[in-house]
Amino acid sequence: MATPTVTIHWGDGLSRRATVGQDWLQAAREAGVTIPTGCLNGSCGACEIDVNDAVIRACIATVPAASGGGLVVQLASDPAW
Ligand code: FES
Predict the structure, then answer these.
(1) Which atom of ligand 1 is nearest to the CA of 39?
(2) I need a labelling partner for 36 at 20 to 30 A (CA). Which of 7, 45, 57, 61 fits?
(3) Does ligand 1 come within 6 angstroms of the Cβ of 34?
(4) Is 81 within the bounds of a domain?
(5) What phi-psi label fits residue 32: left (phi over 0), alpha (psi between -120 and 50 degrees) or beta?
């Protein structure tokens, strides 16, 4: 059975397919996108990204399945970072 994939829209017209269940940081790397990181264990929030209007911490989350238009990512622009 084929591995499910999902289209991720990274902004600036950049869209790439990624494997459902893949690490967000790896998916970003493969798309040439840099997600800032700090602790890599989910506690600092440096890696927060907005996925379909929900904030996730990329270092501890995986790419979910999505229907329709895929996943729209906005890199957080938290002034604290
Ligand atoms: S790198 Fe610290 S929460 Fe993800």
Answers:
(1) 2
(2) 7
(3) no
(4) no
(5) left
Asked if the structure places residue 80 within a domain, the reply is: no
The structural domain count of the chain equals 1
Name the pTM for this structure. Answer: 0.88
Residue linked to tokens 């927060």: 48
| pLDDT tens-digit series, residues 26-64 | 999 999 999 999 999 999 999 999 999 999 999 999 999
User: 6: which strand partners?
Assistant: 18
Q: Does residue 79 surpass a pLDDT of 70?
A: no
Residues in the chain: 81
Calculate how far, in angstroms, residue 14's C-alpha sits from the geometric centre of ligand 1: 24
